[in-house]
Automatic annotation (TrEMBL):
PANTHER family membership: CYTOSOLIC ENOLASE 3 (PTHR11902:SF56), ENOLASE (PTHR11902)
Binding positions (Mg(2+)): D242, E291, D316
Signal peptide segment: none
Example of a GO MF term: phosphopyruvate hydratase activity
Pathway terms, separated by semicolons: Carbohydrate degradation; glycolysis; pyruvate from D-glyceraldehyde 3-phosphate: step 4/5
Record's cofactor remark: Mg(2+) is required for catalysis and for stabilizing the dimer.
Name the record gives this protein: phosphopyruvate hydratase
Broad enzyme group: lyase
Matching SUPFAM superfamilies: Enolase C-terminal domain-like (SSF51604), Enolase N-terminal domain-like (SSF54826)
Keywords: Glycolysis, Lyase, Magnesium, Metal-binding
GO CC, one annotated term: phosphopyruvate hydratase complex
Family: Belongs to the enolase family.
């Protein structure tokens, strides 16, 4: 049973406070921490921060720590950690609000994850196996990683309006090979960028992608293509882009030069122009996935583009991992994949429900990190246990990103002959 819960404030990869929980049972201590993103929407679960501008610029989380140490501890001590849905329900009942604004989704998620780890230990099974059991899904699958190699948008201080360009080693035979292919391409890309613009252009963004100071994403795509050519992997590596277009949408137009000091006005595009641009991109590059191609409230354009069937169309800011938004998008055929950000949901039980929604609709599923991450590798086990087929955890560099990818290596090793890599079936 759960004997003690102790929370503390730690810092995430951006140096901003977040919550960590140590949950104790007779089997030992189980630790979990929660990530945080640059974009927060009105439909996601609420992250509570202290808001005192004099301390950590308002970002400290001591109130949340206290809530865990007092209210949540009191409610959960004595519970069986294998009963995930009862633990999560107890916190939902205690919170009583729709968006977890009373206790804080950051408090609830940290405890929910720690309890899941304790539950796996109680059953003496690997974490991914316990998660697979909880979801009713029995065949753990190693996801195809979407490695961020170019960063822009809110994640980097360059002129690139779009948020990230990713590479997917769909042609790898195993996850281990996918990681090698991703790493090699990343290092070739570093060389390509250095040759073209100089070493200073190799600085990286928040999720580890290179952030050369260019404003043209076609130029960035060409760099990535050149790196892939140098590795010789060619058609075994595909490209995905997160446009995060809400961040450069002004009224009904999209300003692809929004971060550039020398705006010419040439890149001010209507939704229709954007559709044409996406069509051209999909025919010029091996693009298999596009995330948030339009503003988060521009459902019609996304629907039209998705209907063309040119690639996977992922809803991130569009859906905010919110069950109601996902249901609407399924009914209206708005997009065909979900970017799953677990801190927008708040409990593991609800994460499993949201995943089920997406799977029943035959959508693609991307288990996703946030730009502010911690060393917690839970996301890796989650992606395997829920067999999401895809994981987006940043570049194949930087500790908080590698925490996830390295854990996937360990899981694959442990599964041995039984290991399945999603590979070409990444969208299932
Ligand atoms: P965020 O970015 O964590 O800053 O929200 C992640 C993403 O947009 O995919
Ligand atoms: Zn996104």
């Amino acid at each position: 049973v759960i004997t003690k819960i102790k929370a503390r404030q730690i810092l995430d990869s951006r140096g901003i406070p977040t919550v960590e929980v140590d949950l104790y049972t007779n089997k030992g201590m189980f630790r979990a921490s929660v990530p945080s993103g640059d974009t927060t929407g009105m439909y996601e679960a609420v992250e509570i921060r202290d808001g005192d501008k004099g301390i950590y610029l308002g970002n400290s989380v001591t109130r949340v720590v206290k809530i865990i140490n007092e209210k949540i501890s009191e409610a959960l001590i004595g519970m069986d950690p294998t009963l995930q849905s009862q633990i999560d329900q107890a916190m939902i009942d205690l919170d009583k609000t729709e968006k977890k604004g009373e206790l804080g989704a950051n408090a609830i998620l940290a405890v929910s994850i720690a309890a899941c780890k304790a539950g796996a230990a109680e059953k003496e099974v690997p974490l991914y196996k316990h998660i697979a059991d909880l979801s009713g899904k029995t065949s753990p699958t190693l996801p195809v990683p979407a490695f961020t190699v170019i960063s822009g948008g809110k994640h980097a201080g360059n002129n690139l309006a779009i948020q990230e360009i990713m590479i997917l080693p769909t042609g790898a035979g195993r996850f281990e090979e996918a990681l090698q292919m991703g790493s090699e391409t990343y290092h070739h890309l570093k060389a390509v960028i250095t040759e073209k613009y100089g070493a200073h252009a190799c600085n990286v963004g928040e999720d580890g992608g290179f952030a050369p100071n260019i404003s043209s994403f076609r130029e960035a795509l060409d760099l990535v293509q050149e790196a892939i050519t140098r590795t010789g992997y060619n058609e075994r590596i595909k490209i995905a882009i997160d446009f995060a277009a809400t961040n450069f949408c002004i009224g009904t137009k999209y300003d692809l030069d929004i971060k550039s000091p020398n705006k010419s006005g040439q890149n001010f595009k209507s939704g229709e122009d954007m559709i044409e641009m996406y069509k051209e991109l999909c025919s010029d590059y091996p693009i298999v996935s596009i995330e948030d191609p339009f503003d988060k409230e521009e459902w019609e354009h996304i629907k039209y583009f998705s209907g063309l069937g040119l690639c996977q169309v992922v809803g991130d800011d569009l859906l905010m991992s919110n069950a109601k938004r996902i249901e609407r998008a399924i009914t209206e055929s708005t997009c065909n994949a979900l970017l799953l950000k677990i801190n927008q949901v708040g409990t593991l039980t609800e994460v499993i429900e949201v995943v089920k929604l997406a799977k029943d609709a035959h959508w693609g599923l991307v288990t996703s990190h946030r730009c502010g991450e911690t060393e917690d590798s839970f996301l890796a086990d989650l992606s395997v246990g829920l067999a999401t087929g895809q994981i987006k955890a940043g570049a194949p560099c930087r500790g908080e990103r590698l925490a996830k990818y390295n854990q996937l290596l360990r899981i694959e090793e442990e599964l041995g002959d039984q290991a399945i890599y999603a590979g070409e079936d990444w969208m299932q």
